[in-house]
Amino acid sequence: MSTGNDMQVRRRARLRFGLRRKATGRPRLSVFRSGKHIYAQVIDDGAGRTLAAASSLEQALRGSLRTGADKEAAAAVGKLVAERALAAGVSAVVFDRGAYLYHGRVKALAEAAREGGLSF
Fold first, then answer.
1. What integer pLDDT is reported at residue 95 of this predicted model?
2. Exposed/middle/buried for 28, CB within 10 Å: 0-12, 13-18, 19+?
3. Cβ atoms 50, 42 nearer than 8 A
4. Is residue 120 part of a domain?
5. What is the CATH classification number for the domain harbouring 88?
6. Angle, CA 33 vertex, CA 4 and CA 3 arms, to 5°
7. d(Cα 101, Cα 107) in Å, to the nearest integer?
8. What pTM was computed for the model?
9. Among 28, 111, 51, which Cα is nearest to 77's?
10. What is the mean pLDDT of residues 78-85?
11. Is 103 inside any structural domain?
């Protein structure tokens, strides 16, 4: 019988396989959420480099956020990663939600990144 972690790994791999086919040279906006914080990175898989990153752990955000684990924090991280990606010259990305459903904090981060100027 498969454990929950095995299923999560399979779901993430299945999603990334489809993303590689659809990416056509675009970097991917990868999201990781833990129980206490949320993290986002813009990754160029061809070069194997991180172009921009943001998280709710950063000093600039920690003072203004009540907690790092709510939709407000996710939206702030989404705007910040969009700013940094645009500064790095990236305007179009592929959204990699990992094994998470497109709901709640993940959806809030994605919508904030779109409002910040990223297109996906």
1. 95
2. buried
3. yes
4. no
5. 3.30.420.100
6. 5
7. 8
8. 0.87
9. 111
10. 98
11. yes
Residue 116 amino acid letter? G
Which residues have C-beta within 8 Å of that of residue 54, sequence separation ≥ 6?
39, 40, 61, 77, 80, 81, 84
Q: Evaluate whether residue 34 is within a structural domain.
A: yes
**pLDDT at 74 > cutoff 90:** yes
Residue 17 CA: distances (Å) to CA of 20, 68, 88, 98: 5, 30, 26, 11
Contact partners, residue 24, CB within 8 Å, separation at least 6: none
CB 97 within 8 A of CB 8: no
Q: Provide the number of structural domains found in the chain.
A: 1
Name the residue range of residue 47's domain: 4-115
User: Following DSSP, what letter does each residue of the chain receive, concatenated?
Assistant: ---HHHHHHHHHHHHHHHHHHHHTT--EEEEEE-SS-EEEEEEETTTTEEEEEEETTSHHHHTT-S-SSSHHHHHHHHHHHHHHHHHTT--B-EEE-TTS-SSTHHHHHHHHHHHTT-B-
